[in-house]
Structure formats: C-alpha cells, structure tokens
Amino acid sequence: MYNPPRCLEGGRALSGTVVPIITQTRDPGPACPAPEGARGETLRTVARLAAVVAALYVFLASMRLLGFGFERLGGSFSQNLIATTSHPFVALFVGLLATSIVQSSSITTSTVVGLVSAGLLSIRNAVPIIMGANIGTTVTCTIVSLGHIGRPAEFRRAYAAATVHDFFNILTVLCIFPLELATGWVSRAATALANALAGGRSLEFGGPIKLLIDPAAKRVFALLEQAFSGHAPAAAVVLGFALLFGSLTLLVSHTRALATGRAEAALDRILGRGGPLGILVGLAVTGTIQSSSVTTSLLVPLAGAGIVSLEQIYPVALGANIGTTVTALLASLAGDVRGLAVALTHTIFNVVGVLIFYPARPLRRIPMFLARQLADAAVRSRRNVVFFVVGVFYAVPLALILIDRLR
C-alpha cells in the first residue's frame, strides 16, 4: 500500500512510513505549497515597505513645502538682515535667525556669497554669518522630533538624536568663533585656498531630492496660490507641518514593524562599525541629496523607534555637516574668488569642528551628554522644549539684533 508524501509545518515533505527509502528518492512527490501564514507575512512585509516608501516621499515633500513657505514668508527679511550686518557678534545671530526663518542654510549661504561677490559684505564679516547658519539649519531636525512628543520614551530618544546636532554646532562655534575674532584665521585660510583653487570649472548637480520631490511640492504650492492668493506661504507652512507630522507617524510605526531581523542587522553593520564609516555615510548621503537637514531628520524617527542609537547617529550628523558644503564648493569654483572663499569657510568650520569633537573620546561625549540631559528635561516638562526651540533659534537672536539696531 502506498502512502503519499505528507507536508509538515515549514514546507518539508516526509514519505509515508510504508514506502521504501529508494522510492522516496526516485519520486519525492509534489512540492509542498508554501504555508498560508508565510505567504500572508510576505504580503504584510511588502505592504509595510510600500507604506514606508509612500510616507517617506510625503515626509520629504512636506519638508520642501515648508521650505517654500518659509522662504517666501521670511526670505526678503533675511536678505535685508544680512545685508545690513557689520558687527561680527551680531552677524553670528543674524546667520542663526535668518536660517531658522527660511529653514535652509543653503539659502543663507547663497545670499552671503552673492553679497560678498558684489562687494557689499567682506569675507571676514561673512564668516560669523556662515557659523550662525550652521546652527540655524538644525532647527528642522529639532522640529521633526516633536512628532514623538506624545510618547515619552520615543520622544527622549528622538529629541536627543535631533539636538546632538545642535550642540555640536553650538560647541564648535564657541571654540572657533573667538579665535576667528582674534586672528581672522578662518577667513585668511579660506581666502588662501580660494586663490589656489580659482579658475576651476563649475559643476551643476541637481540631486535626486530636487528631481523627485520638487515637482510635487511646487505643484501643491501652486494650488495653494490659486486657493489662498497672498496667504499661500502661510497655508504652505500649515499644510507642510500637518503632512510632516502625519507622514512621520506612519513612518515610525511601519519602520518599527520592519526593523527586526535583517533590517536591523543591516543598519548595525553600516552604522555600528565605528565613527569614520558613519561620517563617510553622512557625507556621501548629504552630498548626494544636498541637504543635511534631510539626512539628520531621517535618522530621528529611527532613533525614536529605538532602531539606531545616539552613538551611531552622532558621526552621521558630523558627516552631514561636511557633506552639505560639497555642492556649494563645486558650484563656486568658476565664480568670483571671494564667493569661493565664503564656501570654503563653511567647509573649514565643519571639518575643524569634527577634528575637535570626534577623535578624543572625552570631547566626543560632550555633545551627546548635553543632548541626553536636554531630552530628559524636555520629557519632564514640554515648556523646556518651547524654551529651547523658540529661545535659541528665534527669541534670543532677534532680541540681540534689535538691541544692536537700537543702540
């Protein structure tokens, strides 16, 4: 009597007990179908991946929409602010405030390059503005972390991941800015390098973010202009924030579900091998997508979900700081030597900051320690979040600039 092969859990086939071994070898019988549970799990994984891609696209598009809104709301104000700046200390806060308003260090840096090339601003006066812009650009990442504010454990991790970038830039300014005031070494070094490099050929690089995201963001903004006319920038900011937090919620939930097994192991292999690789990853990604805010903001949900640690994020943020200067350098090589010098001050500032606050372990731990302390304070009271974001990025710089104007 012949017993047909039986399927066991996991898809393995066993022949009946009466069938000889040689028969099983010659005719193993039909392949067992994949279990329904495994097939359903595969479909769920594919659906989650599609949801992550869709949420990521909306997340990036919402950031671009916010940028369009802020640029039109505060762009002329920022340009006028920069153009009338002369005192180096005030220039630092002008760069911080201008970048916080338009949420793009690229816009601030481009304005400064144009003013320097036109002879309206000296290179030495431009350096503090660039330093302030480096701090101001981190406000986007900090705002993204607020999407976790309703879940204390997630918010603590996400807020620390966001503000470690803030503290690195603030500490770098505290180290380099006094030396620049006393000696002018950054502006002198940048000018010397610019004179050596002048005469190169400009390279245009649009980047995938502009190619994939800008058309959708511009289309939405055009629809808002038709619907709200002069109030379109404000409507873009409101809609941008709504889309940002909505997409962030979906991104976190689906990423957390996917980030087990192979996905988590892959991230550990990439980011867990040590700081130099993380710095290179941050530099390469930011140089490609041309936005340090996007690079660091994408890490915030992963930190909130507990997928990556603060120690893994920190070197990536440092690399992103350097990577954000690459496009400006390439674009300025064929331009005015003074504009190239301004772009080089940005690179020198970020590279020296990494050399100060990464190789030595005691110094490396300072930004992470401060970020964790601030995150603990933010979880204890949400007022501390408001004080930090509004105070550091808007209120204090604006107050100091107004005091200078009224003197």
Characterise this structure:
- The structure is a single chain.
- The protein is mainly alpha-helical and 407 residues long.
- It has a domain at 87-205 and 262-406.
- Helices cover 79% and strands 1% of the residues.
- It has helices at 21-26, 36-83, 88-102, 105-117, 123-136, 139-145, 152-183, 185-197, 207-212, 214-228, 232-258, 262-271, 275-289, 292-304, 310-323, 326-332, 337-357, 361-380, 382-406; strands at 6-7, 13-14.
- It has a two-stranded antiparallel sheet with strand order 1-2.
- Strand 1 and strand 2 (13-14) form a beta hairpin.
- Helix 2 packs antiparallel against helix 11 and helix 7 packs antiparallel against helix 14 (292-304).
- The protein starts with 5 loop residues before the first strand and ends with a helix.
- The model is unreliable at 7-27 and 200-206 (pLDDT under 50).
Content-based structural category: mainly alpha
> Rg to the nearest angstrom?
26 Å
* Average pLDDT metric: 76
Helix content: over 70%
Biggest sheet strand line-up: 1-2
Question: Element order, helices and strands?
Answer: EEHHHHHHHHHHHHHHHHHHH
Count of discrete alpha- or pi-helical segments spanning 4 or more residues? 19
Identify the overall geometry.
Answer: globular
In total, the number of strands is 2
